[in-house]
Amino acid sequence: MTTKQPRYSKEEFARLGDEIYESQVRPQVEAGNYGKIVAIDLETGDFEVDASEIAACDRLEATHPDAQIWIVRIGSGYVRRFGGQTKRI
Amino acid sequence: MITGIVNRDFEPIIPLSVYGADGKTYIKNAIVDTGFNGWLSLPPNLIAQLNLRWKRRGRAILGDGSECVFNIYEAMLVWDGELLTIPVDEADSEPLVGMSLMNGYQLVVQVFPGGLVELSKVSPV
User: Is Hydrolase set as a keyword in this record (chain B) (predicted)?
Assistant: First the structure.
């Protein structure tokens, strides 16, 4: 089994993810799914929606084992909030 | 119940047993962080030590209002005697336990150095 690795820089990953979400995914998922997670494969544009992040990604990986997955929380710009994240010196 | 202690830096610390890719469990101390809404964050060196598999990326908002794109891995851990598979976020900080991992639990902290930290399961009303 090959280990999946990111094939794009973080910037490119976010740019592609935002583009696909805004143009193709958002119109299909936004109604009635507030707060759920969308997992998008950057290379095929295929996606899965679920309240569980792991369930959405598992379903996407079942059909696209090598998926480059960008996740979005519906209705929010962020999938996580890191409170007082500080780097130890 | 999960128990821990408040350290001299006023951080509530609990021990976690995380499984590495080699199937061994590693005990890591983690800071209970109610300002973090994920499950667990680990620094890159610990993710490498555990040899966790990269799964995906997403966007986060940080405490100072800035945003970042971060890597998400997955790991199995022992939580209150149960085996869970959870998302693990890569973050340049000490290991943090977030609100999603504490879902369904009551958190009690005695806020002074050496004070007790207790997480006990509750039934949501």
Answer: yes
